[in-house]
Amino acid sequence: MREVGTDSGCRGPGAGCQDDVGQSGGRDDDRQATITITGYSIASVLFALTICSGRNLTGKRYMPGGPFHYRWTMRKAVERVIDAIRGRPESRATGFRVQLEKPGIFLGSSYGGWTVCPEGLHKGSVAYSFGIGKDITFDIELIDRFGMTVHAFDPTPESLDWLRGQNLPPQFVPHAYGLAARDGTAMFHPPQNPEHVSHSMVHRGRPGAQPVEVPVHRLGTIMGMLGHTGIDLLKMDIEGAEYESLDDILKTGNRVPQILVEFHHRFPGIGVKSTRSAIGALNAAGYAIFSISGSNEEFSFIRNGNIS
What CATH topology corresponds to 9-303? Predict the structure, then answer.
């Protein structure tokens, strides 16, 4: 799960469902990088102001995760602007493009929301939401809009404690285990900032922080445990473990109509090359990108046949 302030406001409405196709290269990338950096900087500030107002882009009041998010978001928004001006690698355009024009709606808060295609989603639909942290606005809006069932997964202790204090609808079904490319357990490392929630299987070097051992399962195993032969939507915000998990999902033939994934190429040792490889594998399996957030980290895919 992204922490508040590490993402741009472009994640919200209007961020996706573009009609550019393919991936850019050469001098076009340089021009796009300039445009993206400028827009990214402005959007980061607007996002910070949105958080501080206590309302999302639909006007609904919310406060995910506690009051510390206000000061944290403002600080991170300023850092984003400075990064863009200095041209740091994490602030440059990646060149990713939307590959297919589809209707999209943004659900959830400006912090925890995602763009979905409403086609094929209905009361009988089932969604798996991996990585919830302390923001379930996306999951709740899926339930409110479509009446569907959302199975939410997060083995992080602080997230589980937070969930116990929430008034959850019956269609929201929490599970205390995570997604991985294997069945068993995994070491989840605490975030670098002790005020944050999201743990990761990727060790990011927080001094003195002790990992916790948590249960994890492959997607096929989870579907078997829950009695599902298929699901309609898969959301993955699993802090760097998405690459191995996606590879396992595609190799085992699980074909979910929509896949929403946050790629953590900003993490040291991962890089954009890993994301390009994952997107290539998804394209080969018949998935096309129909929405990308302004941070170039949250991607929405729909299964639509072979993508050249």
Answer: Rossmann fold (3.40.50)
